[in-house]
Amino acid sequence: MRRALIACLLLVCLAPLGCDGRAERQIADLTAKVEKLQGERDALESDRAALEGQIEGLKTARDALVETKGKLKDQTKRADELEHMRAEQAKKLQALEGKVAELTKRAERSKPPAPVTDVAQVRERLQKMATALFQRGDYETAYLAGLSARQCGAQSPELLYQLAFCRAQTDEFEDAAALYRESLSLMQKVPSAYRRLELKCMNNLGVALWELNHIQEAAETFRQIIAKDETYAPAYFNLGLIVAKELNDPEEAVRAFRGHITHGGKRAVSARDWLKKLQDAQGEKSVPAGQTGATTGK
């Protein structure tokens, strides 16, 4: 119908031109072009409708994305809140565990010691107690604990050495010397195991003998130590003192004090002072005596 309408309009417009067939062809060409343009316009309308549909779909997707983003933000905030709550609970739990541990320690400390009926256990506990007190410098109590351990059968070089040292601190040099000798006697059974303790024990025995005025025996004890270990510096110092003060042998004293310095003795300053005294006193009969000033080892 549209085509017929177009054709009539064209005929009306072209009537003055005549009907020689040329006008009809022009009308047909124009009609074809109009129909083509109409088809293109219909296609564009269809494309526009499709694009509008896609735009609507995108808007819907955008709205859904915004909604999802909002939900995700809420979930993230909730997760942060939960993490904060978890951290707070962890702190409270840690504090509670600390209190439980402290209460457990208090309960352990407040427990009465289990009754001990085995003599060996009593002996071991007394010996450990004596050693702990000795290391803390509580020599009087350490002696009592060690003596009790010995009465229960404890008999070790270390215990006897500690007892001897404790007696020497209260000027009981007779007891100290006897205990030092007893300790040395036990060490001889396994000498390699008590090498350092043996040297200290001999050195302290020499000091006790000197305090008891057994001068020659004390000096010989210091010489024996040096013969056993020529690097044991305390014996050099004590030998230097006793031969300078008691035996009036400045040459041996000089050698001994020099030996103390050479082997890194802790009383090197005093040793140098004595060397100066001996040099200044050359030609005099003796060096002034006084307290022994000997070096003992704990």
Structural summary, described in words:
The model is unreliable at 285-290 (pLDDT under 50). By secondary structure, the protein is mainly α. The protein has eleven helices and no strands. Among the domains are: 120-189, Serine Threonine Protein Phosphatase 5, Tetratricopeptide repeat (Alpha Horseshoe); 217-298, Serine Threonine Protein Phosphatase 5, Tetratricopeptide repeat (Alpha Horseshoe). The protein has helices at 2-14, 22-110, 119-136, 139-151, 157-169, 173-187, 195-211, 215-228, 233-245, 250-262, 268-280.
Describe this structure in a few short sentences:
The protein is mainly α and about 300 residues long. It has helices at about 1-15, 20-110, 120-135, 140-150, 155-170, 175-185, 195-210, 215-230, 235-245, 250-260, 270-280.
Helix content estimate: over 70%
The CATH first-level class of the domain at 217-298 comes to: Mainly Alpha
Shape: elongated
Number of DSSP helical runs: 11
The structural class is mainly alpha
Major sheet attributes: none
Contiguous runs where pLDDT drops below 50 for at least 5 residues: 285-290
Q: State the order of secondary-structure elements, H for helix, E for strand.
A: HHHHHHHHHHH
Query: How much of the sequence is in beta strands?
Result: under 5%
Average pLDDT: 84
Termini Cα gap:
133 Å
By DSSP, the count of extended strands is 0
Task: Give the CATH architecture of the domain at 217-298.
Answer: Alpha Horseshoe
Rg to the nearest angstrom? Answer: 56 Å
CATH topology of the domain at 217-298: Serine Threonine Protein Phosphatase 5, Tetratricopeptide repeat
